[in-house]
Design a protein that fits this description.
The protein is α/β, with parallel strands linked by helices. The protein folds into 3 domains: 131 residues, no CATH class; 311 residues, DD-peptidase/beta-lactamase superfamily (Beta-lactamase, 3-Layer(aba) Sandwich), CATH 3.40.710; 147 residues, no CATH class. The protein has a 10-stranded mixed sheet with strand order 10-9-5-3-1-27-29-31-35-36. Strands 2, 4, 6, 7, 8, 11, 12 and 13 form an 8-stranded mixed sheet that branches. Strands 28, 30, 32, 33, 34, 37, 38 and 39 form an 8-stranded mixed sheet that branches. A hairpin with a 4-residue loop joins strand 23 and strand 24. Helix 2 packs antiparallel against helix 10 and helix 3 crosses helix 7. The two termini are 31 Å apart.
Length: 629
């Protein structure tokens, strides 16, 4: 994107796929946490003395430094690459649109902040990961600052009718849906709870837990406790050495191709499920047949314990659940073994956290929970025998995979789009505690998890999920610029739906002309801005600020006007069309020809305009648009 006729100092909030090249003047690029998921932003600005401002609250997942370039990866998968860094200073913290001061450092000092004390003469060096921008400095990011945002389908690239079709299907009474949530990134697009349930109600996984167990195995592999999935199983189950089972590999166990007989449901009634799972015999050559097996999955916890020397639950808590901020209950058998094939209880939103982490290639709030290389293998079809990976169901038809559980417990993960669907049926916790006791000898000592059957039609659900998500792939990633004008500039010919933020950062006596007739555009007047005078034409407006700057907007019917708020801090504004905006200045009817002056000395305050508390000198409006004659 090139800003035509912009030879002065531009301030640009980079949000989506763009290459910024050839801008004149001394420019500022503001990087905030509102950069789109997986956006690729390239800044190739070799003219002038430029600035990168990292706004307070931004979390940087990883960094790569070269001699005169840097690449910043954010926690949402976005990557910002800056070339010609000897022309840049780096402002840490602060917020230009709020005139909050930042600490300015040169490129070598910026690299040193990430542990790169000497820039490489050639090649690249990795900097620190998981760094949060705080007030004028950088700190290690906290893993517990995640929050969901409620968002409309359209604002996240969905079509409402597609989302409604998906959710209405899951609300079908016969499906007994307790909860269903559709998310994209950390945005909740749709959320449903049946009567008597809410977002704090517990759901249970049944076999969805298998995908969690697989992920814990992946972490153990990343940490070197498990060297390879091709290892002989006897590395982790030594009692099978010199038996018919010593040819089984961990990979075959993960893929349910161990060749061992499975008792299907009887393991659930066993007091020691690991012992029962270990004692099975082989009925098929390992790797030759897919046979869905709770007992294969039950052995994964035993393997992790033998590999790490830790209790499975302790290892899973420290490596998976604690970093994700999940307060789960994972049921055990009477011998104390974690049910790594089932029995995982948490809220639906917590299940969604796990799904989002997987969709984000194992990343969570600046931390790599499990490697992307593990997830790439675990969620791919193992072979042509069955659509199954390492405890995940896969698809040859759709670009997503699933964790599926008894009675209709689902997590659908679409990694290319960061879209996740979680759905659970009615859950009742029977008895006390979280140790499974289902032997009917003493009804007072029974405890288990009970769900209402509500299996959806898999083909219908996958099709509806695909219909909803595919629209986000068609979303124009290169369609929205956020620009903070500060100096003399003319903005003309920008494509898409653009936002111009008018703030106190505008230079004194600057002349800014916005001629943007493409798309549905927005002018946002930031809280605290004072407008000394205004003049309206039929399809244009000129605003003079208290510091003598003037902003002229042509083609105003293509604009909405946001009063108050701040796009860099997500403070909400009130939206007005052009006619309603004019009325805020006392102009009830736009003139058919000529111009009308609006009210003077207006301050933007809490989404309204108020009379300024002090008098300001009037400044001449500099007319730069022929709409004013």
């Amino acid at each position: 994107m090139t800003l035509n006729s912009s030879s002065s100092n531009d301030v640009i909030i980079a949000t989506n796929n763009k290459t910024y090249r050839g801008l004149g003047g001394d420019d500022t690029y503001i990087i905030t946490k509102f950069v789109q998921n997986n956006a690729k932003i390239n800044i190739v600005d070799t003219e002038g003395q430029n600035t990168i401002q990292l706004v307070e609250g931004l979390t940087i997942f990883s960094t790569t430094f070269a001699s005169n370039a840097v690449s910043l990866e954010l926690t949402n998968g976005a990557v910002i690459t800056i070339n010609g860094t000897d022309n840049f200073s780096f402002d840490l913290g602060g917020n230009l649109t709020k005139t909050t001061s930042a600490m300015s450092v040169d490129f070598p000092s910026f690299a040193d902040s990430f542990g790169v004390s000497n820039l490489p003469e050639k090649g690249i060096l990795q900097g620190k990961s998981g760094i949060e921008v705080s007030s004028q400095n950088l700190i290690e990011a906290s893993s517990d600052n995640f929050s969901w945002k409620l968002n409309s389908p359209e604002s996240s690239g969905f079509r409402s009718e597609d989302v409604d079709a998906l959710m209405n299907y899951l609300k079908t009474p016969s499906l007994s849906t307790q909860a269903a949530i559709l998310i994209k990134g950390n945005n909740i697009i749709a959320e449903y709870y049946s009567d008597a349930f809410d977002n704090k109600s517990m759901a249970t996984s049944w076999s969805v837990a298998k995908s969690f167990a697989s992920t814990v195995v992946g972490v153990a592999n990343d940490e070197g406790y498990i060297l390879s999935v091709n290892d002989p199983i006897t590395n982790y189950i030594p009692q099978w050495e010199n038996t018919e089972k010593d040819t089984i590999s961990l990979k075959q166990l993960l893929g349910m191709r161990s060749g061992m007989v499975d008792s299907v449901v009887s393991v659930y009634y066993s007091s020691d499920m690991v012992s029962q799972s270990l004692g099975r015999s082989i009925t098929n050559e390992p790797g030759s047949v897919f046979s869905y097996s709770n007992e294969d999955s039950m052995l994964l916890g035993h393997i992790v314990e033998n590999a790490t020397g830790m209790k499975f639950q302790d290892y899973a808590d420290s490596r998976l659940f604690d970093p994700l901020g999940i307060n789960e209950t994972w049921w055990t058998d009477q011998a104390g073994n974690t049910l790594t094939y089932a029995g995982l209880d948490m809220t639906p939103r917590e299940f969604a956290r796990f799904g989002l982490m997987v969709a984000q290639e194992g990343r969570w709030q600046g931390q790599q929970i499990v490697s992307s290389s593990w997830l790439d293998v675990a969620t791919q079809t193992y072979d042509d025998i069955a659509n199954y990976g390492f405890q995940w169901w896969t698809s040859n038809t759709y670009p997503f995979f699933q964790a599926l559980g008894l009675d209709g417990q689902y997590i659908y993960v679409w990694p290319d789009t960061d879209i996740v669907l979680v759905r659970f049926t009615f859950y009742e916790h029977i008895g006390e505690g979280s140790t499974v006791r289902v032997v009917r000898g003493d009804d007072n000592d029974i405890s288990y998890h009970s769900t209402t059957s509500g299996n959806a039609n898999g083909s219908i659900l996958a099709s509806l999920f695909n219909d909803a998500g595919k629209e986000t792939q068609n979303e124009e990633k290169d369609s929205h610029e956020i620009i903070v004008p500060t100096g003399k500039s003319t903005y003309r010919g920008l494509e898409g739906n653009d936002t111009y933020i008018i703030s106190k950062a505008i230079n004194s006596n600057a002349v800014i002309n916005i001629v943007d007739t493409e798309g549905e555009n927005t002018v946002q007047l930031v809280d605290g801005l004072t407008i000394s005078s205004s003049k309206f034409a039929s399809n244009a407006v000129s605003l003079s600020l208290s510091n003598g700057a003037s902003i002229t907007i042509s083609g105003a019917d293509k604009f909405s006007f946001d009063i108050g708020g701040n796009a860099t801090t997500a403070i909400e504004a009130i939206e007005k069309d052009f006619l309603s905006f004019a009325k805020m200045f006392g102009v009830e009817d736009l003139p058919e020809s000529g111009t009308l002056s609006g009210s003077t000395n207006q301050t933007v305050s809490e989404r309204i305009l108020t009379d300024s508390p002090v008098s300001f000198a009037e400044f001449d409006i500099i007319i730069v648009s022929s709409d004013f004659g």
